[in-house]
Specification:
With about 550 residues, the chain is of the alpha/beta class. Helix content is about 40%, strand content about 10%. The N and C termini lie far apart (about 70 Å).
Length: about 550
C-alpha cells in the first residue's frame, strides 16, 4: 500500500475524519492503513505488528464507524492483558468518538469496585474494554450481553499468552455464539496464538508489519521525566545548556507545533513551525532557511517533517512522545545525518511511561534518563560562553579603542580596580539574560503511585493467570471484593488497609473494623475516656497492648 495514503482514502465517516483532524492526525501508520479497510469490509484480521505502531486506532476507528449509536448494548468487545492497557484503549475510544453523540465505552478490570462497572454498563456502553478475568466474571453474572456483539478484538495476544490468559481467552470466545467479526493483534506469532487464530478466526486477512530496523547507533538518546506544564521550561533550559547547531522539535499536533514555536520566538530563539496547515511554499521556505542557517529550530509534526534531510541538524527533541515506535525511529533519524553523531531527547510524563517502554523494546536499547539543567549548570554554561566571547573579541576585534578609553576614564576618575570594572560589565551583560529563580522540580512528575489502592497488601501466590493481574492492578480479579480490605473493613475506609504500620504513635494492634469518623482512636474508646473531639489535655494512652471493642 502506498505510503501517501490518507485517512480520507480509508472511507472513514466524516465525523471521525473531523475528529482525527482535530487531534492532529495527518496520515495512518502502516498497520492502520492495512487493517482499517479490511475491518470495514467485515473480514477477520490476524495482524502481526510491534507494540506502539498505532494498533489501537487500527481497530478502534473501524469499530466506531460501524456502531449503531441508538442501540445501548455492547457491540464490540476488546480484551487487553493489563489494567493499564484497558484504560488506555478506553481513553483512545473516547477521544476518537468526540463527535459521536450517544457513544459510551466501559473499561472493566480487576481492582475496581463492581458497582462502578455495573453503572457504566447499565448506561448503555456500546464498547467494552477489559481484562480477561474480570470480563469472565461479568459474563458469568450475565451483566455483559453477548447477543448484540458484532466484533471481538484480542489486543496484544502474545502478552496474554505470557501472562497465562490463553484458557480464559478461549472461554470468552466460546461464550459468543452469534456471528461476529474477530481481530487478533500480536507482536509475535507463537504456535498457541496461531492455534487460536485457526480455531476462532474465519478466512482471516493476514497482515504483517515488519519492525523498523533503521540504525540509530550514532544517536545519543535520553529522556527527561517532566509533567506537561514543565515542558516549556525544561525545553528552554535544555536548548541553552546544549551546543546546538540546528534542532527539530516534534509535537503531536499542528496546533501545538505553532504554540511551541511562538513561545520559543518570544524567548529569543530563531524558531518556526512546520505543519500541515502551512502552504507548500511556506514549508519550502522554512526548510530552505534552516538549511542556509538563518533558522535554527523547526517545531514540526511527523508528516510535515518527512523527507527533511538537513545535515546541520544536531538535535531532535520529542516535545510530545510519539504514540507509535515507528514514528520515534523516523523522528530521531532526522539527526546524525551523513555519518555525523546526533542527540535525541524525549519528554515523558508519568502517564506515558508505557509508551517509553514500548520504544525501548522496539529499538532494543535502554534510553537513559537525564535531569533538567540546574540553575548552577546554566550559570556555569553562561560563564563559559562569556569567557569565549571576551577572548574572541580581544583577539579579533579592531574597534576596542573607544572602550579601552572608557575603562581608563572610569579607573582614573573613580579609583576602581580593573578587575572590578570588568566584573561590573560582566554583571550588566548577565542581566540581559533571564535566570530561573527556582529549580525545576521533576519530583512532581514521578509516577502517580497515590492512585493505587492503599489496601493492596502483598499476598503470597505464584504468577498464575489472575494472581499476576491482581498484583498488577491491586485488587481481586475473580472475587467481588474490589478494594475491600482483607480485615473486613469497608473499601477504602481504612488508611492502612487494616493493619497498624510500624512506627505508629500508639502501640498495640488495630481493631478490624473501619475507623469511625471523628474518632481519635480506632474502634470504640473504653468507658471514661475523653471524647475524641475534645481538644483539651488528657493523659496519653499507655504503651502496653490493649484491645478495644469496635462498634458493630
Amino acid at each position: 500500500m502506498s505510503t501517501d495514503v490518507t485517512f480520507k482514502d480509508l472511507d472513514l465517516p466524516e465525523p471521525i475524519l473531523n475528529t482525527l483532524n482535530d487531534l492532529g492526525y495527518e496520515s495512518p501508520t502502516p498497520i492502520q492503513a492495512h487493517s482499517i479497510p479490511v475491518l470495514l469490509k467485515g473480514d477477520d484480521v490476524l495482524a502481526q505488528a510491534q507494540t506502539g505502531t498505532g494498533k489501537t486506532a487500527a481497530f478502534a476507528l473501524p469499530i466506531l464507524s460501524q456502531l449503531d449509536l441508538k442501540l445501548k448494548q455492547p457491540q464490540a468487545l476488546v480484551i487487553a492483558p493489563t489494567r493499564e492497557l484497558a484504560i488506555q484503549v478506553a481513553e483512545a475510544f473516547q477521544s476518537y468518538a468526540k463527535r459521536l453523540n450517544g457513544f459510551n465505552v466501559c473499561p472493566i478490570y480487576g481492582g475496581q469496585d463492581y458497582s462502578i462497572q455495573l453503572k457504566a454498563l447499565k448506561r448503555g456502553a456500546q464498547v467494552v474494554v477489559g481484562t480477561p478475568g474480570r470480563m469472565m466474571d461479568h459474563m458469568r453474572r450475565g451483566t455483559i450481553d453477548t447477543a448484540t456483539l458484532k466484533m471481538v478484538v484480542l489486543d496484544e495476544a502474545d502478552e496474554m499468552l505470557k501472562m497465562g490468559f490463553i484458557d480464559d481467552i478461549e472461554w470468552i470466545l466460546e461464550q459468543i455464539p452469534n456471528e461476529h467479526q474477530t481481530a487478533l493483534f500480536s507482536a509475535t506469532m507463537p504456535v498457541s496464538i496461531q492455534k487460536i487464530a485457526k480455531r476462532y478466526l474465519k478466512n482471516a486477512e493476514k497482515i504483517q508489519i515488519k519492525a523498523t530496523t533503521e540504525s540509530v547507533a550514532k544517536i545519543e538518546q535520553s529522556y527527561m521525566r517532566v509533567s506537561s506544564p514543565q515542558k516549556m521550561e525544561a525545553l528552554t533550559r535544555y536548548l541553552e545548556s546544549e551546543t546546538i547547531e540546528a534542532a527539530i522539535i516534534f509535537s503531536r499536533t499542528k496546533t501545538m507545533s505553532q504554540e511551541v514555536a511562538d513561545k520559543l520566538l518570544a524567548r529569543g530563539y530563531a524558531a518556526s513551525a512546520l505543519n500541515g496547515d502551512m502552504k507548500q511554499s511556506q514549508r519550502e521556505k522554512v526548510i530552505g532557511r534552516i538549511k542556509k542557517g538563518t533558522l535554527d529550530i523547526i517545531v514540526a509534526t511527523d508528516v510535515a517533517a518527512r523527507g527533511i534531510d538537513v545535515e546541520r541538524v544536531t538535535h531532535v527533541i520529542n516535545y510530545d512522545i510519539p504514540t507509535d515506535t515507528e514514528s520515534y525511529v523516523h523522528r530521531i533519524g532526522r539527526t546524525g545525518r551523513a555519518g555525523r553523531s546526533g542527540k535525541a531527547l524525549l519528554f515523558v510524563s508519568p502517564r506515558e511511561t508505557r509508551l517509553l517502554k514500548d520504544i525501548e523494546r522496539a529499538i532494543n536499547k535502554k534510553i537513559k534518563q537525564v535531569e533538567p539543567p540546574t540553575i548552577k549548570e546554566l550559570s556555569d554554561r553562561r560563564n563559559i560562553e562569556l569567557v569565549t566571547k571576551v577572548t574572541n573579541i580581544i583577539a579579533k576585534s579592531k574597534n576596542l579603542k573607544p572602550f579601552q578609553e572608557l575603562v581608563s576614564t572610569i579607573q582614573e576618575q573613580e579609583s576602581i580596580e580593573l578587575a572590578d570594572i570588568a566584573a561590573a560589565f560582566a554583571y550588566l551583560l548577565a542581566q540581559e539574560t533571564t535566570t530561573p529563580l527556582t529549580e525545576l522540580d521533576t519530583m512532581s512528575a514521578e509516577p502517580e503511585r497515590r492512585h493505587k489502592s492503599r489496601s493492596n497488601a502483598s499476598r503470597p501466590g505464584d504468577k498464575n493467570r489472575r494472581g499476576y493481574e491482581n498484583r498488577k492492578t491491586g485488587g481481586s480479579e475473580r472475587s467481588g471484593e474490589g478494594n475491600k480490605s482483607r480485615s473486613g473493613g469497608k473499601p477504602g475506609g481504612s488508611k492502612f488497609g487494616g493493619s497498624k504500620p510500624s512506627g505508629s504513635k500508639y502501640a498495640g494492634s488495630k481493631p478490624s473494623g473501619s475507623k469511625p469518623s471523628g474518632s481519635k482512636y480506632a474502634g470504640t474508646k473504653p468507658s471514661g475516656a475523653r471524647p475524641s473531639d475534645d481538644k483539651s489535655g488528657g493523659s496519653k494512652p499507655p504503651a502496653k497492648k490493649k484491645t478495644y471493642t469496635a462498634k458493630s
